[in-house]
Write a structure and sequence with these properties.
The protein is α+β, with helices and mostly antiparallel strands and 118 residues long. The chain has six helices and three strands; from the N terminus they run H-H-E-H-H-E-E-H-H.
């Protein structure tokens, strides 16, 4: 029996380090849009180089759009595309499964409440 090629293709994206977390993070942001510095601040442990590479990869896969506003200064933000929003929505059942079956230590009560409301 072979693995479904659609499952295999999807895990080629979400199975890579940071990709699933980035998609989920963007889905939580206002208008599914955020600045690089905000992602860097909120995703602890990711380096600027890794974040840049991952965002480029997600843009190439048409899951994220890079938005450049010309001015002084130039403002760059990233937002989920329709395809990215659909992927983020598909991660919700995985989040629900993890809540039910994984032992995750959430340090702050407000964070736990925030995640339970999603």
């Amino acid at each position: 029996m072979k693995v479904c090629p659609y499952i295999e293709a999807s895990f080629q994206i979400i199975g890579k380090k940071w990709n699933g977390q980035l998609i989920h993070y963007l889905s939580l942001c206002d208008n599914n849009t955020v600045h690089f510095s905000d992602i860097k601040r909120d995703l602890s442990g990711i380096t600027s180089r890794a974040l840049s590479l991952k965002l480029t990869e997600l843009v190439e896969n048409k899951l994220v759009e890079k938005v450049v506003k010309i001015g002084s200064p130039v403002i760059i933000s990233y937002r989920l595309t329709e395809k990215g929003i659909a992927l983020a929505d598909s991660l919700k059942p995985i989040q629900d499964w993890a809540r039910d079956y994984m032992d995750v230590n959430i340090s702050m009560e407000s964070e736990e409440k925030e995640f339970d409301e999603q």
